[in-house]
Structure formats: C-alpha cells, structure tokens
Task: structure prediction
Amino acid sequence: MEGSLLADRLFDGKTKKMDYDNVATTIFTPLEYGCVGLSEEEAEKRFGAENIEVYHTSFKPLEWNFLNMQAKPHPDNLCYSKVVTVINEDNRVIGVHYVGPNAGEVIQGYAVAVKAGVKWETFVDTVGIHPTCSENIVDMYVTKREQAEVNKGGC
Result:
C-alpha cells in the first residue's frame, strides 16, 4: 500500500499518505497475537493517561473444550483482549489487541472499524456472534481503572 500511495503522489498528483498508526498486525505463534491501532502506552503518551480508557477481558475459546482430552487442558484465562479508547473524543477506539486463536481473522474486521473512527458505544451495541472468540471484544465491560486484572472463566 505504501508503494502505491507513493506512486500516486509522484506520478498522479495525489496527496494521500500512509497511515502507520492503524496497520493491522498479527504474530502467528501457537497462541496468536493481533492488533490494530495504538498500544495502551502509546495512547497515554499522545492523549494523556487521564484521557484513556482501556476495556479488557480474558477468556477461554469454546473449541478448546473439545480438543484432545488427553492433552493438558488450557487455563480459562489464557486468551486476552483489550480495547483502547480516547475518553474526551466520545470514547473513540484507537487500539484493539487480541491474544487467541485466529488473531489475523479477528483483527482484520476490527481494523476497518478503527480506521473508520468507531466509537466504543458501537462495540457495546453490537451483538456478538456466539460462540466465537471475536465476540469477547464486543462483550467487554470491565475497564482497567475498575479492575486491573481480569480472570473470566470459559464457556
């Protein structure tokens, strides 16, 4: 995308530049990590800690209940999601972070929403698809201000 935008600026008179803040990224390790937008730390630097709200949850994917029963079971709180918002901008979502299965698939959809300037209220008003890992992102209600650690059990 960066190369295409550069070519458009150089040869087609366009002015659009790359948005490096909202590039979706996934690390494909056994327990995958995906994110889009700012980290909690970067958000606090840019907007001030008092203007940042972080919603978070831990979870156990339903499909892990049906894996090889001889294997050591996964803990109920191994997976984790958090959403970073700017309070004084109507809780605009500026970061979504996810640790769990299929992180690339999960984050790709949220990347569109973050680039579009989605507000936290839209997440709250969204009916999650059950049972999916992604539903944990729209079902969050605990903030780090209220509860620094989350330990939610699986389904």
Q: What stands out?
A: The chain is about 25% helix and 20% strand. The chain has a mean pLDDT of 91. The chain has one domain: 20-138.
